[in-house]
Amino acid sequence: MRIVEWDARAYSGLSVLDFVKRITVQELSSPALRPLGPVAVTLAQLEGLDAHAQAVLRRLAALEAQGASGTASRVES
Prior knowledge:
Elements: H1 30-46, H2 50-69
Helix pairs in contact: 1-2
């Protein structure tokens, strides 16, 4: 008969990272926002994030206004 020894150790299921709020921030240039903006609006609306959708729509409208007037300033919400 063979006896198998088990090395039992206790490990916590939690770590410091479980208590840290992690966020990500994405930034788009104006040329990148033009094609991705409508997709972002659709996703935000599907997820019920109406304020996010409105923010993107405002930025897209500002880009269109800049394009019409020929100015190249930063888009602010």
